[in-house]
Structure formats: structure tokens, C-alpha cells
Amino acid sequence: MPRGPIRPARAVTAAAAALTAVGALTVTAAAPASAHPATARHVLLLSVDGLHQSDLAWYVAQHPDSALARLAAGGVEYTHARTTVPSDSFPGMVGQVTGGDPGVTGVYYDDTYSNALLPAGTTSCAGVKPGVEVDLTEDLDKNKDSIDAGQGLGGLPGSILKMTGKAASLIDPSKLPVDPKTCKPVYPHAYLKVNTVFDVARKAGLRTAWSDKHVAYEILGGPSGNGIQDLFAPEINSTAIGYPAGEDWTKDNAATEQYDGYKVKAVLNEIDGYDHGRTDKVGTPAVFGMNFQSVSTAQKLPASDGLTGGYTSKGVPGPLLAKNLAYVDRQIGAFLGELRKRHLASSTTVILSSKHGQSPTDPSALTRIDDGPLLDGLDAAWKSAHPGAGDLVAHAVDDDAMLLWLTDRSQAATDFAKAYLLAQSGTGNGIDGKAKPFTAGGLKSVYAGAAAARYFRVEPGDSRVPDLFGISQYGVVYTGGKGKIAEHGGAHADDLDVPLVVSGAATPHGVRVNRPVRTTQIAPTILRLLGLDPRSLDAVRIEHTPAL
User: Fold this and answer.
1) In what order do the strands lie in the sheet with 209-211?
2) Which of 9, 33, 250, 387 has the most neighbouring CB atoms within 10 Å?
3) Alpha carbon of residue 192 to chain centroid
């Protein structure tokens, strides 16, 4: 990979043109096509959650000799990449490894709802009414307060690399929804409607590994249940040992960096050819990687470690975020250095992106709204208009978007919910904590009933699609209190505009692609890089997702 600052642009090579299915290429430093093998032996996928393309551009401009700058200059940088809508961790990451959007994968959020499954704990299924929360968070862990998710390791957190790579074994099946046909619990991997790159790689006899923040990420292994051979998933929302009582690893940015460091060590062990805990020599995986969480907490926390979080002005990282971007840069530098040390740089492609962005990047736009009174008011209004009826809201997820599943899925009921929410005004609070008025429930646009189904390109009545999807006004974050200054899950540019860099083996150097691409295109690209057929992915065939 080239070192030093990015050099002046010159003509695009044939290899660069072949790599991307879209046009508008500009080149900053191109290497001869003959310098790159036709395929890679390894793909290292890295998701820096919360990272925007603007953050990457800012950091590279400030630090032209950084690892991130070398990574971007050493491959193809897609400057207009967008993640999924909703821009949540689960649909975002699932999209990267399946090639599909939520309507195809069936995964809309990390905490969602199904009108086809039965409540957790159901053992006698005859006559039970379907409709249940599908929780893909820490709540599935055998012990969500422990970083090992309930495995029972001693000496935590220092011993966490001894955590099992069989993450599904740490899920409590009594917390899972139940399939009415089999009357058995539905594990996350079985909830996913389509296969993943890990599935395809395993069928081809290749080794796979991944590291993420909950054991529920075993969903990435795909419907086979065994797509990921080594899944290291320490629980991020567990009690952070060594930090104030009751706080998890996201409440202090230094804690989040410490947490991410465990996953970094796991990936370094895998580069060296071991399993994540460096116990067995198994060979460097063909598909592996991790997500970083610490940029996300640096964007969300008002302050941490004596530094102000978020942005000082529109798109300009504040001191905590700048510090954390430097942290991530050092870890990526460690990966690149280890690949060179193990003579794997010429056979490994590194893909850098993000599951989601974060909104707002303009601190002055922040309006925090407590969604509890909005939803309580909706239920009360429904019952007032329909004497004898119960609550209308069956399940709600509101971060910087609003996803509602209703007990009455008729168009009349969804229209009622839409009209009620858009009629609400009140007072939230801004970045300074002072009162700030809001209108229309904080919403910019609302898709209800059949319109929500059309938005997600599914049939009306689909068992998983939200009955109402509300896109918030820019800057709105649904939260009680003043504990966060940004969120994700919505459809604003700040939620969606993420970096996408493909660098290393089988790529030209120094190419910028300025036309829009999607992070769902990562999945078929991974397979093509490994010499496998992208159309082996179900979602690629359904959505006609092109490789990059």
C-alpha cells in the first residue's frame, strides 16, 4: 500500500474501470493493473459505526500520512455511499453481508416485531395468537450484565478472549420468539430470510470469522446457522468492569475504546492464523473482520473523559470525536502492519465502511423529544375514539426515526396514527439543554399502512414491515432527558452517508468514485474478490445488487 500523502490525479486505469459498475471516476494515484492479482485470498471487512464520509475526508485532510489516508489512497474510495433505511446496526450490517435491503432480508431493526411468530416461552402453540417482539439486542444473552454474555469466565474483562466463538450457545432460547409451525424458538440466523457471504464462503470450503457487539450477531452466519466459524461477540451493553457502577461500555468513551480493543486483538490473532483467542492455529480466514463502536459513542455522548462529544459545528468533529478517530486510525494501522508482517498484504483486500451514520452533525439542529408522551397520547386517543379497544401501539422503536407496529393493521388505524402524530406539538430541548419547541411530532414525513409497505417494497400485510414509518425532522432525536446528542436509524443524509473504501489486493490504487453506490454492494463485491459467484447470494438475485 502506498505511503505518504495522496498524490496528484492522473488517468484512470483499465483495472479501475473494471472494478466499479458505476462511472464518474477520478484518480488520485493509480498503480499498473498488472500489480494486482485477479482475486484476493482474504477480505478484511471493517465497520466503523457512526463514521460519515465527511468524517473520513476531514481526518485524511488533517492527517495525510495516517493509516486511513494510506488505506484510501491504496484502493478505491466511493465518496457517495449510502447505507440501508432504516439506518440501524442490524439492517446496516445485514445489508453489507447479504446484498439486501430490509424488505428482502426481513431485518428492519435490532428490536423489531413480527405478526407471524408467537411469544417467547410458548410451548403449546395451538390456538396462540401470533404477534411478538423480535429482540436482537443484549436481552437475548444468558447474562446481559456480563461481557461474556453469561459464559461464566473468571478474571473478566482481561480473560474475555477466552469467550467462545460459538455465540449462539450464549443465547437464552426462552427469550426467543417461537415458530407456530414447529413450536420451537427462532434463533436470529433462522429469522434472516436470505443467505450471507459467510454462508457462501463456507460452502466453498473457506474459513470465516467475525467480531461484533452482541451474541445475537450470530444472525450474520445466515440461515444455515454455521456460516461463521468463529464469532467473537463480547457484550457491549454489559456492566463495564472498572468504571462507575451501573454503566455499560458505551457510557464512557474510554470504556468503549477498551471494549473495541478486545475485538482488535481478536482480529490481529486471526491475521496471524489463529482463532480469535489465539488458542488454535486454524489459518487466516477468507472473510473476517469487526465493527468499531467507539466513534459512535464519541458522537452520541455530550461529554466524556473531560472532552466535549459530537461536532463543534456542522460536520466539524469536536475534541472527543477527533481523539477517537485517531484511535480508530491507530487500530487500522495495526491491521495493515500485521498484514505486511505476515506477508498477507498482497493477497488481502480491506473494505472499510459503516453500518450507519449518526444525526445530527450540526449541533445547533438538535431537538431532543421524549417519545413516551407521544405514544401514550396516541393510545389514549385511539381508545377514546374506539370505546372498549386496547392500546393501538403493539411495538415502537424511536431513535431518530419512528417505527410503529400496531395492534390494528387496517388502513384506517394506520391513518389514524399518522394523523394523530402529525398534529402533535410540544417542547423538547436543544444542545444547550434549554427548552426547544417542536411541531408535527418531530416528523417530516410519515408512511402509513400500504404506503409503508410500498416504501420498503413489500406487499401490504407483510408480517414484519412496520405499520408506520416516520422520518423525523432534521436534528430530532427521540430520547428522554439530555444524555445523548445524536442517534441513528433514520433516513437523513447524516444517517446514511457513510464511507466505503475497497483497498489492497485485486484493486487499483488511488481511485475515487463520485457517483452514488450502496453498502449492500459490499456483499457481491466480497464474493467476486474471492473468485466466488455473487449470484450465490439470494438477495443479490432478488434485488439485482451489482458488485462495486
Assistant:
1) 25-27, 511-513, 75-78, 501-504, 348-353, 42-48, 287-292, 209-211, 230-232
2) 250
3) 15
Q: Rounded distance, CA 50 to CA 55, Å?
A: 9
Which of 129, 107, 109 is CA-nearest to residue 117? 129
Cα(50)–Cα(41) distance, rounded to whole angstroms? Answer: 29
Tell me what pLDDT residue 37 has: 53
Lookup: cell for 38: 485477479
Specify the DSSP element, H or E, that contains 14: helix 14-19
How many of the other CB atoms lie within 10 Å of CB of 15?
21
Gap between the Cα atoms of 229 and 199, Å rounded: 10
Residue 502: pLDDT over 90: yes
Average pLDDT in the chain: 93
Contacts of 547 (CB under 8 A, 6+ apart): 21, 521, 524, 525, 527, 528, 534
Predicted local confidence at residue 350, as pLDDT: 98
CA 142 to chain centroid: 23
Q: Which positions ≥6 away from 545 have C-beta within 8 Å?
A: 99, 100, 518, 520, 521, 523, 524, 534, 537, 539
Alpha carbon 434 to its chain centroid, in Å, reads: 31
Encoded amino acid at 333, one letter? G
Q: 334 — alpha (psi -120 to 50), left (phi > 0) or beta?
A: alpha
DSSP string, 64-92: TTSHHHHHHHTEEEETTEE--SS--HHHH
Cα–Cα–Cα angle for 214, 220, 222, nearest 5°? 140
Q: Which of 148, 139, 147, 128 is nearest to 176 (CA)?
A: 139
CB contact at 8 A, 178 and 122: yes
Residue among 540, 494, 501 at smallest CA distance from 521: 540
Find the DSSP H helices in 362-443: 371-385, 411-422
Alpha helices in 164-252 (DSSP H): 188-191, 197-203
What is the rounded distance in angstroms from the CA atom of residue 428 to the CA atom of residue 478? 9
Q: Summarize pLDDT for 4-56 with one digit per residue, the tens.
A: 333 333 333 333 343 443 334 444 433 333 344 578 999 999 999 999 999 99
The whole-number average pLDDT for the span 324-349 is 98
State CA 284 to chain mean position distance.
Answer: 24
How confident is the model over 477-504, as a mean pLDDT?
97
C-alpha cell at 85: 433505511
DSSP state for residue 293 in the 8-state scheme:
-
Looking up cell 478472549 gives 161
Exposure of 83 by Cβ count < 10 A (0-12 exposed, 13-18 middle, 19+ buried)?
buried
Cβ atoms 316, 48 nearer than 8 A = no
Residue 289 in this model has a pLDDT that exceeds 70: yes
